[in-house]
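FW: tagging you since you asked about this chain on Friday. Here's the raw sequence from the shared folder, copied in full. Didn't touch anything.
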Amino acid sequence: MFFTVLFCGTALAQVQKLGELSSGIFIDSAVIMEDDDSNVFGYCLLYQLDRKSKEVFDLEYVILDKNLNKLTSVSLTQAAFKMTLVKTRTELTFVKKIGNQLTVGVNDRKVNIDYYDVMAFFNYRFVNINLDTFAASKEYKYEGFKKKEYEYKTGDKMSFDDLYYLQQLISTKSDYFVSFAITEHNPEKLVATNPVTYNYKKHQEIKRFAVLDKDLKEVWSKNINADKKTALQYEYLDSDDEVLLMKKLFLKDKEALLSKSIEVYNIKTGALLGEIELDDKELEITLYSTGIIGDKLHVYTNAHQKSKKGWSQGYGHLVFDKKTVKETKRDFILWKDLASTIPGLTEYGGMGKDYGFAAQEFIITPKGTLLLVLEGYGFKSGYSPLKKVQSIYAQLKEMYLVEFDMDNKVVFSKKIEKQNSVEVYAGITREEMKKYGIFDYMFCQKINKDGDFVMYYTLNDQEGTKRKMAKKPLWTLGIISDVSGEYGFETLPLYGEDLKIYPGLAKNGYIRLLEVNQKTGQAEMRLEKVNY
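HL: got it, structure written out here
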């Protein structure tokens, strides 16, 4: 295996100062993917132009192409729900391109929320922008599987009654949206004495989900939860232009989840192609993630001992034919089999009593091999200078790349040294750490139709005392690429006083960096070229 270590500088960077694109206050940004999800089309930036009254604002949507050139901007008067004792903010939910139409989703959310808050995100509304004429629709919301347009003026107010029955739109990887009916079980009862019981009753009374086209016309739908004795909870998992994957959970009243499976549908007709049961004779398996590559469905699972609940044994990789949904391959990556690759690793995935490992990504390479990305993590208590109390910190350790051939044998491995510490809440799980972006590993991006890819992670190389590091942050973006079967390793130093830097998806060959000055609020977006 050939390695290259490259350096990414700023000489070739494309920069757009966000304050020059609008006279308003920058709020949020979102990436816009091409219709086939193969590359970045551009970006949507959200600004607040004016606050006309407590809950009514003039908002501006600025659309950039993939090179950060401004295409257009549209302004609308919209309402945001505000609470007396809870701080909220407006943000972009998604921006989806289907042909010449952009659908922009916007929501409000509570700031500094509890992860378990049942109403942390709310007030879902949408705007369409025509990419040929740059004309914008009125704001609309989706309720009872119908669009309802809204117009606001100074002094208008919102109440909880305006929010209870609003449906979310879920953006798929094809030319469709998915939406679920609002529960018929007292949707206004947002706080329950027993969250498990409430969750059961809520999902038991969700009676339908539908696949919608770009104009939100129903393509097909499925009625669910007709049996009063059980409750089914469906969740969107994955899709392409042929199939839709929906996770199905059987809930049991006053208990946790009973069982799980994946239903596979023809996304155009709604025909049920098959159901993938998540079970195994020897191990307890639970869903980790899915992938659709060519004519195969890939299902990645956590694997635990059946006799000892919660004792991790490793991970599973299940492969199914996309048309028939018949299983064609099943492999398990067990911790005990990785002991020679990761010195000191125990059969339960730990490094002694100090820390353990968690999967960050499963990647099918262009060669057909499987690349597993692992990151070490542990916990310790320490003093928080900001909160001035003892807090819990996640200790983020080294990463490992482990590649398996078609026979599930290790053919390549590499250790990536790093060290970082992030404050977390007590009792957080590794699944929650992954969900909320606490690990140093960030994301993987395909860079061409051949399947070559690049991965990004935080490499914390700060030096000096904690006080010095807090005053002047200095960290490095780690970049790992796989091009034509050769791995490349690259670093991009990111630094600056009072700055927060947010890496994100960019056009193939680049990384997008959003830099926000915490004192002035000024922000700029730049594209850094990555040399593969």
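FW: Helices lie at 195-204, 430-435, 466-471.
HL: agreed, and Residues 440-531 form one domain.
FW: great, closing this out.
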